[in-house]
Design goal:
This protein is mainly α. It contains two helices and no strands. Helix 1 crosses helix 2. The N and C termini lie far apart (48 Å).
Length: 73
């Protein structure tokens, strides 16, 4: 089973349990392979599932606040 197959199997299970959305941000120009990307994603999921991660009750506020009004569009 490839890392991608492992990820997709987990993803289907998460969708069945109510997952609506998941996002990953990849640095443009990254030399990582598709298999390394999925291996990293699987390691993150393993850490969360095995309680080897820190859960945050909330995120700190951003240091810079941007406000956009109709006039700025």
């Amino acid at each position: 089973m490839t890392e991608q197959d492992k990820f997709l199997a987990r993803f289907e299970d998460m969708k069945a349990r109510g997952l609506i959305d998941i996002k990953f941000f990849v640095t443009p120009g990254s030399e990582d392979t598709v298999d390394k990307f999925f291996a990293d994603a699987n390691r993150i999921h393993d850490a969360v599932a095995d309680d080897r991660s820190r859960r945050h009750a909330s995120w700190p506020p951003p240091k810079v606040r941007y406000e956009f009004g109709v006039d700025s569009l």
